[in-house]
Design brief:
The protein has 635 residues and is of the alpha/beta class. The two termini are 36 Å apart.
């Protein structure tokens, strides 16, 4: 696989001092981070960068860890939160080997066969693991703790077991992005965020299952953590399932449009979709550079925030987009604020134009929620008010109107340019297609396809189309058209910010779903969801999702809420979510009942084709994680 330049900048920010003196295109050619097009996490040597400056010992964030006397005794090792495990490792009540073995035992019992992109009879959260390396890493973590006399001078994530999405590079291991079309795609280096976890002494259990080509937000390969017959959400399917099913302490997901938030919401996990640029994406198989982000999924927001504090910060060599992040990066909170009203002074807005798929445009979102979701929503709002917040309905921004949104939804039908063969270039395509061109998105897949057996090559071709035509079209987009696309994106951002400012809203509250998720087969997978789940990615804004209840059906699934707001406001929305979970901990401490152990009757051989039901080509536009496919639903 050919190593390629780092993902392109989107010119969303004012010029940074570090960029002066470089032309935009020549600067982008200096870094090397990822092979593109979902085509590889095969990365060059520069990716394994030194840990970010905030990783210097002693670690300031550890001052906010819970006191030992405040940690309850939990039924199983795997039920402890990460922040609790950190304390128990240092009090010598747990070892990293014990923790890792506990998760491996559950993977053996409940995951089912590996390397199956389809129903494997189990949770199918992990596509593959490296048991020996995981246990060796755990033993090394225990030795590190012992050398430092179990002090807080050891990095906080030392000895904590992780799952990593199948599109993120782990050195020496295959990354397949949810399809056997990428069999043999072995990473030469860690992705930057994986390198940062490794530097902490974290245990890398293995890769979690992704939707095929990271293309679907519903997902059918993994089973829901609460009931395997239901969808897990995608495209970070296994990353949403594993923490809740107690197959890993936490995971790393990747999102282009909904791919962290959907699996977090559908499984009742706590996940953070960061602002564009806050976490480097070097070493991640890209879908849409300029939208792609990576973030943590865990059982509590404070666990996710701790992980976020470790992986954030610029990668100056490999990811120019990460240079837009604040320096220093915002300090993530991991502790709730004191007092009965920690949200005093916070105004949370419920956007009335956040249209849902289950009702017509023009219907306020809550009017479309089913009875269980509406009850949970109203109770949650009352709980926020009890904690001191002011919760108001406000218009938000109706992105079906061209004057509000010249870029994303209403702007999707605008043709800014036609290529030499007549292909229409929308505002979003004017931004994303040149970004893909600059990182060699289609060329990388083409070169990889030339090295693999014909069935793999055919699957790649069916997903990406004619590599040469796509490359030519993207390369024909003039710089002036690209700048117009980016100008429209900035205008959408400014319009949305004004919508918040006009009502004094600090951040927004939405429900990702308005009804229970559906079955993996034989029914509607997403019955009612946010129509514009891609909007936070178009805006570059962060979201945090966390559980607030359960539905009342005979086969109950969790109900999640989400906070989201302006770019780089992670600390504010995360703090509010931590405050909520500290006062209403029952939802994030819920554990699903264990299913029956998996009795494997299928071969563990590698399958040369998709096992069942989900390919990159069969995802309807309205459920696609790819913004340029999803915008077809807006036209």
């Amino acid at each position: 696989m050919t190593d390629l330049p780092a993902p392109a900048s989107t010119d969303l920010d004012a010029e940074l001092p570090a960029q002066r003196g470089f032309s935009r295109r020549s600067f982008l050619g200096r870094g090397a981070a990822l092979a593109a097009g979902g085509a590889a996490a095969s990365v060059v040597g520069g990716v394994a960068v030194a840990p970010a400056a905030h990783a210097a010992a002693p670690y300031p964030i550890t001052k906010d860890l819970p006191k030992r006397q405040h940690i309850p005794t939990r039924a199983r090792i795997v039920d402890y939160e990460i922040v609790e495990m950190i304390v128990l490792l240092r009090s010598r009540e747990l070892t990293a080997v014990q923790i890792t073995q506990a998760y491996l035992d559950r993977i053996d019992t409940f995951n089912g066969p590996f390397e199956v992109y389809g129903d494997n009879g189990g949770y199918n959260a992990f596509a593959r693991i490296d048991r020996e390396e995981a246990l060796a890493q755990a033993a090394a973590a225990d030795a590190w703790l012992k050398r430092e006399n179990y002090s807080l001078n050891v990095p906080p994530l030392c000895g904590i077991p992780f799952g990593i999405k199948d599109s993120v590079a782990i050195k020496g291991r295959e990354s397949k992005n949810g399809t056997h079309a990428y069999d043999g795609n072995v990473a030469s280096q860690d992705a930057t965020i994986v390198a940062r976890l490794r530097a902490q002494g974290a245990v890398l259990i293995g890769h979690t299952v992704a939707s095929a080509f990271s293309g679907s937000i519903s997902g059918t390969f993994s089973g829901n953590a609460w009931n395997k017959k239901y969808i897990p959400g995608g495209s970070s399917q296994g990353s949403g399932v594993a923490p809740i099913a107690r197959l890993a302490a936490a995971t790393i997901g990747e999102e282009t449009g909904g791919s962290i938030m959907m699996p977090a919401a559908i499984n009742g996990a706590s996940g953070i979709k960061p602002s564009l640029g806050l976490n480097p994406v070097s070493g991640v198989m890209p879908l849409s550079p300029g939208y792609d982000v990576v973030g943590p999924i865990a059982r509590s927001v404070r666990d996710a925030a701790l992980i976020q504090s470790v992986i954030q910060g610029p990668d100056q060599v490999n990811d120019p987009i990460s240079l837009s992040a604040p320096i220093p990066a915002p300090q993530m909170p991991i502790e709730a604020r004191n007092g009965k009203k920690p949200l005093t002074g916070v105004r949370i807005g419920v956007p009335q134009t956040d249209w849902m798929s289950g009702s017509a445009i023009g219907t306020p979102p809550a009017n479309s929620y089913d009875a269980d979701y509406l009850a949970a929503f109203n109770r949650f709002k009352a709980e926020l008010v009890k904690l001191g917040a002011e919760v108001i309905d406000f218009p938000g921004l109706d992105v079906t109107k061209i004057e509000n949104d010249p870029y994303f939804s209403a702007g999707a039908s605008t043709v800014l340019f036609r290529t030499s063969d007549g292909a229409a270039i929308s505002p979003a395509s004017a931004v994303l297609s040149p970004n893909r061109f600059e990182i060699g998105y289609w060329e990388a897949v083409k070169q990889f396809a030339a090295t693999v057996p014909t069935p793999q090559a055919n699957t790649l071709r069916s997903n990406f189309g004619d590599y040469d035509v796509a490359t030519r079209r993207a390369g024909e987009v003039p710089e002036s058209v690209r700048m117009e696309g980016e100008r429209r994106r900035k205008q959408l951002q400014a319009n949305f910010q004004k919508a918040l400012d006009d009502y004094g809203v600090d951040f927004m509250l939405v429900l990702p779903l308005g009804a229970k998720a559906g079955p993996r087969t034989g029914g509607t997978q997403l019955r009612n969801y946010r129509r514009y789940y891609q909007l936070p990615n178009a805006l570059t804004w962060p979201m945090v999702s966390f559980p607030i209840g359960m539905d009342s059906t005979s086969e109950p699934l969790p109900i999640n809420a989400a906070f989201w707001g302006p770019r780089f406001t992670e600390a504010q929305i995360v703090q509010a979510a931590i405050d909520y979970q500290a006062n209403y901990p029952e939802w994030n401490h819920m554990a699903p009942p264990d299913p029956a152990p998996v009795v494997s009757t299928m071969s563990l051989r590698r399958l040369s084709v998709q096992a069942s039901g989900e390919t990159g080509a069969d995802v309807p536009p309205e459920l696609s994680a790819d913004p340029l496919i999803a915008e077809e639903a807006f036209k």
